[in-house]
Automatic annotation (TrEMBL):
The keyword DNA damage applies. It comes from Zobellella iuensis. This is Formamidopyrimidine-DNA glycosylase. Belongs to the FPG family. Residues 236-270 form the FPG-type domain.
């Protein structure tokens, strides 16, 4: 599943090809995504893309008239290709631009979406209740500390809650809790301010590192593959259950939390 870093790298990859370009045609081959692609998406035609932003894992193609909201779901990817490139299986939507290129959405499992709104996009039902972006100043240890008071939920679930902070997927939750030395099972409300300062810093660092590593694949973005893919980074705990902790040598343990693999060091994380 594309996580926040992959979506951010997709945004960086498509921006130079789309920004300032006007839309010539929108070809919808299969509107049956997670929600049907609305007929109003054709309002894009003739409009100029004035911004390509990201909110959580939504890509926002902004015009002066409305905003297209794009999500890659479980398996979606974007390619920038020359117009006339034959469409393959699962190539559901093309947005053709005045510069002779097209933006192609491929999504085998069709859990992604492409929607259109003329309202202020931050108030769209999909976006209105989202927590802050992890890489902004609005997100820090004080914020986590305040939001966690009185919460009995496990800290791992707490930081993976999109209404608390967006974009902390399972891998990043595992890694940042290890970095901060916090047990994933600890009650969110029982963690002090200092430890949340450390945790917020770890969350920012692990996401920024993933985006940085993904950025090195950008030159291939318009290639035949087009998938920025998972960024292979050195993971300290995720996928390493039973192997020695990189800090203390104890064997890492794995439990399931909300059905997701949770790996931690029983000595370093408390
Ligand atoms: Zn350890």
């Amino acid at each position: 599943m594309p996580e926040l870093p992959e979506v951010e790298v997709s945004r960086l990859g498509i921006t130079p090809h789309l920004l300032g370009e006007s839309v010539m045609r929108v070809v919808v081959r299969n509107p049956s995504l997670r929600w049907p692609v609305p007929a109003e998406i054709q309002e894009l035609v003739g409009l100029t893309i004035v911004g390509i932003r990201r909110r959580a894992k939504y890509l926002l193609l902004e015009t002066d008239w409305g905003t297209a909201i794009l999500h890659l779901g479980m398996s979606g990817n974007l390619k920038v290709l020359p117009q006339g490139t034959p469409a393959g299986k699962h190539d559901h939507v093309d947005i053709e631009l005045a510069n002779g290129k097209l933006l192609r959405l491929n999504d085998p499992r069709r859990f992604g979406c492409l929607l259109w709104t003329r309202e202020p996009v931050e108030q769209h039902p999909l976006l209105a209740r989202l927590g802050p972006e992890p890489l902004t100043e609005a997100f820090d240890g004080d914020y986590l500390y305040q939001r966690s008071r009185g919460r009995k939920t496990a800290v791992k679930q707490f930081i993976m809650d999109n209404q608390i902070v967006v974009g902390v997927g399972n891998i990043y939750a595992n890694e940042s809790l290890f970095g901060a030395g916090i047990s994933p099972k600890r009650e969110a409300g029982n963690i002090g301010r200092e430890r949340y300062l450390t945790l917020a810093g770890e969350i920012k660092a692990v996401l920024a590192r993933a985006i940085g590593q993904g950025g090195t694949t950008l030159k291939d973005f318009t290639g035949s593959d087009g998938k920025p893919g998972y960024f292979v980074q050195e993971l300290q705990v995720y996928g390493r259950a039973g192997q020695p902790c990189t800090r203390c040598g104890a064997l890492l343990r794995e439990v399931r939390m909300n059905g997701r693999s949770t790996v931690f060091c029983p000595l370093c994380q408390r």
